[in-house]
């Protein structure tokens, strides 16, 4: 009888744990997600055309960069938190004299809030990489 009760307890605890289903819709909103993990990408207000216009409207910062006559591309990496604020700006690629970090840092720091990335309608922190191509005349 003692063994039957122990087996019953073991069986009932195992069956209870197996009936607890894992919520596949759970999203950790404090985690940092990549652009490939989100259902909806972060977006600058107005979309891609607006971000290009915003960057190009900062002539003072861009003129300093264009003075070095650099042809090539860089990736502007940053985090868009779940509130739409940009953080941890970094230039990936060749950064002659630190000019890209300095001047793009000014441009991106002063940007308006973005629409954050989403997973299943939950706003999440997303690391974003924005490619930028330089072609000097």
Could you characterize what this model shows?
By secondary structure, the chain is α+β, with helices and mostly antiparallel strands. The protein has one domain (31-134): TolA/TonB C-terminal domain (2-Layer Sandwich). It has helices at 2-19, 48-56, 59-66, 99-109, and strands at residues 32-33, 72-80, 86-92, 117-119, 122-134. Strand 4 and strand 5 (122-134) form a beta hairpin. The radius of gyration is 24 Å and the shape is elongated.
User: Average pLDDT, to the nearest integer?
Assistant: 77
> Runs with pLDDT <50, length 5+?
1-22
The CATH level-2 architecture is identified as: 2-Layer Sandwich
Q: β content, as a range?
A: 15-25%
Contiguous helical run count = 4
Quick description:
This protein is an alpha+beta fold.
Topology:
Layout: H1 2-19, E1 32-33, H2 48-56, H3 59-66, E2 72-80, E3 86-92, H4 99-109, E4 117-119, E5 122-134
Parallel strand pairs: 1-5
Antiparallel strand pairs: 2-3, 2-5, 4-5
Helix pairs in contact: 3-4
């Amino acid at each position: 009888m003692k063994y039957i009760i122990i087996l019953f307890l073991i069986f009932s605890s195992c069956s209870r744990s197996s009936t607890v289903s894992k919520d596949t819709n759970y999203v950790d909103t404090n985690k940092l997600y990549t652009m490939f993990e989100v259902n909806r990408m972060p977006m600058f207000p107005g979309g891609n055309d607006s971000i290009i216009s915003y960057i190009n409207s900062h002539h003072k910062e861009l003129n300093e960069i264009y003075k070095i006559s650099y042809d090539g591309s860089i990736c502007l990496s940053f985090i868009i938190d779940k509130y739409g604020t940009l953080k941890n700006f970094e230039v990936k690629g060749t950064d002659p004299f630190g000019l890209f970090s300095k001047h793009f840092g000014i441009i991106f720091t002063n940007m308006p809030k973005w629409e954050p990335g989403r997973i299943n309608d939950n706003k999440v922190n997303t690391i974003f990489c924005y490619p930028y191509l330089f072609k000097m005349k």
